[in-house]
């Protein structure tokens, strides 16, 4: 990439990150916000229902020394409501110049 293009992309990334953080933290008052910096986020690989979820809650409750009901309640409260802005987050892809 040319020097001008690199500078432009860096400026665009800085602006984009600022805008995303502003929307994420100010645009959703009273709700939890998760910002995933890795692709794919870990929660996509965890159990979501059935026996696997039951076993996960059991294991977590033992590790954290809390009731299984508390773990289940907390996990169900953390479900995604609007997990993705745009097509796939707020990613920028430059495929051709």
UniProtKB/TrEMBL annotation:
InterPro entries to which the protein is assigned, alphabetical: Pyrv/PenolPyrv_kinase-like_dom, Pyrv_kinase-like_dom_sf
Organism superkingdom: Eukaryota
Family matches, as Gene3D superfamilies: Phosphoenolpyruvate-binding domains
Molecular function as annotated in GO: catalytic activity
SUPFAM superfamilies, per database record: Phosphoenolpyruvate/pyruvate domain (SSF51621)
Protein name: PEP-utilising enzyme C-terminal domain-containing protein
């Amino acid at each position: 990439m040319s020097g001008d293009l690199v500078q432009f992309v860096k400026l665009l990334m800085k602006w984009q990150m600022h805008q995303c953080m502003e929307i994420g933290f100010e645009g959703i008052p009273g709700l939890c916000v998760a910002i995933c910096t890795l692709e794919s986020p870990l929660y996509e690989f965890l159990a979501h229902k059935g026996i696997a979820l039951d076993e996960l809650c059991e294991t977590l409750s033992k590790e954290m020394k809390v009731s299984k009901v508390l773990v289940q309640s907390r996990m169900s409260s953390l479900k995604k409501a609007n997990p993705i802005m745009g097509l796939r987050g707020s990613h920028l892809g430059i495929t051709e110049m």
